[in-house]
Amino acid sequence: MTGNFFNFYSHDFVRVAIGVPAIRVADPAFNSEQTIALLKQAAERKAVLALFPEMGISAYSCDDLFQQRALLDGCLAGIAAIVEASAKLPILAVVGSPLAIDHHLFNCAVFISRGRILGVVPKTNLPNYREFYEARQFTSADAATRDEIDLLGQRGLPFGNNLIFQHEDQPWLSIHAEICEDLWVPISPSSYAALAGATMLLNLSASNITVGKADYRRTLVSSQSARCIAAYLYSAAGPGESTTDLAWDGHGLIAENGNILAETERFKDEPQLVCSEIDLERLSQERMRQNTFGLNAQRELDKLRRFRRIAFTTELPRRAKMIPERIYERFPYVPSDPATRDERCSEVFEIQVQGLATRLRSTGLERVVIGVSGGIDSTHALLVCARAMQRLGHSAKNIYAVTMPGFATSERTLEQANRLMKALGCKAEKIDIRESCMQMLRDLEHPFAEGKEIYDVTFENVQAGERTSHLFRLANLHAGLVVGTGDLSELALGWCTYGVGDHMSHYSVNASVPKTLIQHVIRWVAENQSLGRDASKTLLDILSTPISPELIPGTNDDGHPTHDTEATIGPYELHDFFLYYILRFGYPPPKVAYLAHHAWRDKEAGRWPGIAPENRHQYDVATIKAHLHTFLYRFFRLSQFKRSCIPNAPKVGSGGSLSPRGDYRAPSDSEATAWIEQLKLIPDHE
């Protein structure tokens, strides 16, 4: 990391801009003035790149006026004006203009920076169907007879559709441009450019508007950015284009790896500029992980070797504090939009149910055994069991749900467990494990057996192990399958009792579902009242109970257990945030802390996923740093041996799982030194 910690450029983000100027048909002087005005705005907003529409200097809808020398000369003058204006601006401009070269007319993207033209990219695919007649005036890039041109006093300028513009101070910023129809064809020039290393794909477009076309554009742009694992910027013609036979909506889009980050307001009469930040490291990490991206590049080496790299530089403003305009969710596993969240919860739940149902079919077993504590993990797993039995056509009595009160079980959680089991109609049993635990403690000569209040790890794990031992023997007795309840967050932190403890089961339905998502799936089940009003009320009561393993005696005045997990290891809402960006993207600690600070610094800002105001939190950078230290040490140094031998479980989300057979393979004896050392790059205060 270089520069200011609180500046997104220091964490390999770059801000980019889409400009949609107001234009006049065949008035290059006016159009260049409008372009320069937006370019200055983009520079003021600290963008590194500004993209403008196809033929923005002349207007796209000039038709046969493109064959008039006066218009072409005016376009050259317009480009010259932009070049002159750019000399004092720390930004790369990409503008569209017709250019006459070697007795041919080309539809071009002109790259301009710091008072110079860097290169020119002609359009490859010229539409000549329906309302388009480009082949009447223009020539395809494939017909170019040379790869360098002279323009406005500059000699030997790179020319062609095989140019990649490489930023000298940010190696992950590699830019390629294509023009409008180039994206509409089955294999676009940008596909090859991405395989050749381009991370920022640009499209200068005109694209008149017809009914439904905007949605199609969004699909094209987002899917191309996803297939190419790239950013894709799209700027279409807007106000001022001729409406002789067509209409224009000024549609601009910024996408990153399948996600639309920003979009212009369509049909607006005024000029527009929209910005967002592109995470270049994410694109690089994704390409490294997806090995088929590299394999695809190998198969196309002959085409990729044609690409030429043009070095350029613009100042990256890394020193000042800069807050990104891009929104990062506090809960990366939980969408804040209610409709999307409901869809996510439903799909997660069905994946878990399908996994358990399939395992039961394959084993020939019709019963499951599950320990129910009255906490959120066992509650969620029990709901999955209930739905799986419905799916298989079995009675809910085929679920052997067992409460196993120990030395620290609170009346509140035990009562909640009993209410839930009754609502679901499963076979409910109670086994008090205190006597058998006491016998083991006596066998171990533990001080607690002699009446001393010693609540050490042995005391805790005797109870955890006794519960698991009972579950496995009950499964033997009733020909059932033990369903595990531990979740992804606990596996990440190693917050489970190894071996004969909550670490082990026959099948674990929650193992790739993080704690924060489990809470929302339970709330989703409660709010849709699919199990009835009583069950929904019980589920909401369970959600309001503090997370606790209930292994150390003690309750507060509200009947809540005093053995509070989050008071010991930190808030799960932060740990799940850390987990997502470290596991899914491999980000370094300073970048994870920066994103966490951006998301969590102000509880009044942004959207929350259905969390009541009194339960909303905010964290300063010092608190984030302290909890990140806990996460890094436990994840990388302490807990891998537990994850190396976990039970089978279905992978649920793209955020990853920690199964050594699926998503994550790591040595059990690694160090956390490299990650802990980078914590020094995180400040202790803002």
Explain the layout of strands and helices.
Blueprint: E1 13-20, H1 28-44, E2 49-51, H2 69-86, E3 92-101, E4 104-113, E5 116-122, H3 134-137, E6 148-151, E7 154-158, E8 163-167, E9 174-179, H4 189-195, E10 200-204, H5 213-227, E11 231-235, E12 252-256, E13 259-263, E14 272-279, H6 280-289, H7 291-299, H8 301-304, E15 308-312, H9 338-363, E16 367-371, H10 376-392, E17 399-403, H11 411-424, E18 427-430, H12 434-443, H13 457-478, E19 480-484, H14 488-493, E20 507-508, H15 515-528, H16 533-543, H17 565-569, H18 572-583, H19 589-600, H20 621-638, H21 640-643, H22 673-678
Parallel strand pairs: 1-2, 2-3, 8-15, 9-10, 10-11, 16-17, 16-19, 17-18, 19-20
Antiparallel strand pairs: 1-14, 3-4, 4-5, 6-7, 8-9, 11-12, 12-13
Q: Can you tell me the overall shape?
A: elongated
Q: How would you characterize the largest beta sheet?
A: 7 strands, mixed
Q: From the helix content, strand content and strand pairing, which structural class follows?
A: alpha/beta
* Fraction of residues in H or I helices: 25-40%
Low-confidence segments, ≥5 residues, pLDDT <50? none
Fraction of residues in β-strands: 15-25%
Please state the average pLDDT score: 95
N→C terminal distance: 17 Å
Per DSSP, the total helix count is 22
- How many β-strand runs? 20
- Major β-sheet strand ordering: 13-12-11-10-9-8-15
Rg on CA atoms, Å: 30 Å
